[in-house]
Design goal:
The chain has about 60 residues and is an alpha+beta fold. The chain is about 25% helix and about 20% strand. The protein has helices at about 15-20, 45-55, and strands at about 5, 25, 30-35, 60-64. Strands 1-4 form a two-stranded antiparallel ribbon.
């Protein structure tokens, strides 16, 4: 399990398309991780890594 944070989101929504169970958009069209300060379950981590790799703003960080 790992901690996932989003900071500096550009609102492209790519992460929500790749990992919709982990990332959601707020009213300001900024993505956030639905797990907050909790660890993201391992079964989502492949999609989270893919989302981080394609994030145009490089806004997704993973602390494993």
């Amino acid at each position: 399990m790992a901690k996932v944070k989003v900071d500096g989101c550009a609102g492209c929504q790519a992460c929500t398309g790749i990992a919709p169970d982990v990332f959601k958009m707020n009213d300001n069209y900024e993505a956030y991780c639905v797990y907050g300060d909790d660890d993201v379950p391992n079964n989502y981590m492949d999609d989270v890594r893919t989302a981080a790799d394609i994030c145009m703003a490089r806004a997704i960080s993973i602390e494993e």
